[in-house]
Fold each of these.
Amino acid sequence: MNRNRQRCAWVFGAAMAVATMGTAHGAEKEMLSASEILELVSGNTLSGVFGAENTRYAQRNHRSGITVVNIEGLPARLIPWFVKEPASYCEDWADDGVLCYQIGRDTNSGTYFFQRADGSTSELTVEEGAQPFTFK
């Protein structure tokens, strides 16, 4: 069980780390503030793909500070999330540590993205409220 938990955390963490797809050429990036991140993710569903295999994930960020993370092919997990100053979205994956990202918006398309400390990004879809986890 612990091995599965570690694998799940590693897969998601690695996914964000490997999120190498940059935003579109010529796109104008606008990084969100801590209060904007909190407003964007709290109570909403986030989804996207990560890694070389484009593994899909979806997560429901409850206002209580818990997110239900569903990575395609793995059991759903409950992970604490929080926003820290100056402007980072963070998840506590227990034994695998706390993973933090900035969230930005492409001002041309209105799409959102996660950005790691190394500058790599991955597209982020945000849907209002708790949406069903379906990978079709």
Amino acid sequence: MDRRYKSFFLGENRRAMCEIFSKLIEAIRSDCYDVLPEICTTDCQADVSTVGHLSGINEIQDRLSWPGPHTGISKASIWNFVARSDKQKGQQLAYVQFIRAVDDGEEIHPFLYGGEFINSFVFVDGQWKISHIRFDLC
């Protein structure tokens, strides 16, 4: 998400959740999940409509990795980000659209998909972390 939009969110908690969610989307977009231990709890759960229930950072990384051919073009757009928090718990919702494409030199072969993320957050050790990722493909 563009930094100028992140600054729109009032309150430290919403801004922090927005930043963390943006890192999650960047990890999915780039297919590089090194950031997961920083943004997710060690016992993070995920329910993803395309791959089912996942438990723990390693399984989340393995199952969310892009299964298709290498794509030289990969973009993501975040829409309608909303976050709320109360004490040590938070909830966030956003719609995301991804595009991946293979450019064979003559044509671009795109694959578009998107859906709704609803993520749960917990405040641990002085920072917000994702404790449950939910994604439904639209």
Amino acid sequence: MKHTRILVSLCLCVSVSLCLSSPAGALEVKVEPEVLAQIEALGAPQLAARNAAFEKVAANRHLYVPAMLGLLQARLPTAEYTRIGILRALEKMNPLDEDAAKTLAYAAVRDPFPEARREACRTIRALHDGRSIGELLR
């Protein structure tokens, strides 16, 4: 089975079986091509495609959320609309765990795309997530 490799910095603190410790001091997330395709579809230009992708992601939240959080890392070449789609999906998946709250705060400050930073801030506001706000104030 072919996997796509995504490197995630240690500050993400993802503790899922999909993550393996690498000697370089980073976490390595293996994402199956089908999972990556569904996550990328969250940023599709067609509303029907985005909604269908969200339904699949929401149904298997435990499988998709770690990969979604990994794709939000600023150092990865994730497309802007994919980042925005991930943030909007995380908003619909309320409540979020501690890792997701920290990643939202990190995306709000460090994302390379201004629109994705705006979307992260809007998501934090919509969720009324005190953990994300606390991370922003650090």
